[in-house]
Amino acid sequence: MALNRKRIQRLLRSIVILSLIVGIIYGLGWSKLIQVKNISYSGTSNSSVISDALIREHVSLKTGMPLARVDVRAISRIARQQGWVLDTKVSRNWISGKISIAIIERKPVAAFTNMDNSTSYFDADGTIFNSPVEYGAGAGGKPLPNIAFTTNSAQARRSAANWVAAMPSEFLATMTSLVVSTPTRIVMMAVDAGTGKKAITVIWGDVRDMPLKVRVLRALLLRSENKTHHIFDLTSPLAPITR
Question: What does the pLDDT look like over 142-184, one tens digit per residue?
Fold first, then answer.
């Protein structure tokens, strides 16, 4: 009898524990005892684009749904699939019922025009991406140049990105076009900032010694004998050529 009583007690304890586990799972996963009360995006003004992508991928995220059923990994994965998103962090607060979605957007350094006349961008690493909005400025608030590539390779884009990073805003603002034939031949067409009228072509070569090349160009544009010159070849900054 004592043995049977112990077995019954163990069985009852197991039933109670199992009932508690089932109750917790139900409470978290299906009931609305702990539900999503707020959804917050930060770091982007394009949260609607991510919301639409979640709907297309059949990933549920709405207020009132059980908090435990929010698939934070799927939300993060779909957000990162947007080309303009560099990284994201999705978290949930079990006390407040808040879902927080922090977005880090890619920062464009330049744009380029595709064959269909649409505009794409690339960042400092040369990564191409599209955006739901048009950028008014590039990384660091610099003017956003539109670059033409003879060969649109990752290496060429990285060279262009390094060139933009080294270029003062005064030259970017007066630039009319930039052609990257190869990573070692970057050619800028611009208006002389000093006169505001004269068209100039600057052959930069590669992106080595850019601070020196910028100083040399400024000095050349100030020299009276170069007032009628339109081409400035800075491939060798210590031996520049003007004509």
Answer: 888 889 888 888 889 999 999 999 999 888 888 988 899 888 9
CA–CA dist 93, 74 (Å, integer): 17
Spatial distance between the Cα atoms of 84 and 9, rounded to a whole number of angstroms: 60
Query: In this structure, which CATH number among 3.90.1580, 3.30.420, 3.40.50, 3.30.1340 belongs to the domain 110-242?
Result: 3.40.50
Tokens of 154: 């990752």
Q: Can you say whether the dihedral through the CA atoms of 183, 189, 191, 192 is positive or negative?
A: positive
Tell how strand 128-129 and strand 119-122 pair up: antiparallel
pTM, 2 dp: 0.75
Give the residue among 49, 172, 47, 168 at the shortest CA–CA distance from 100. 47
pLDDT value at residue 212: 96
Predicted local distance difference test score (pLDDT) of residue 3: 52
State the burial class of residue 50 (Cβ atoms within 10 Å of its Cβ: 0-12, 13-18, 19+): buried
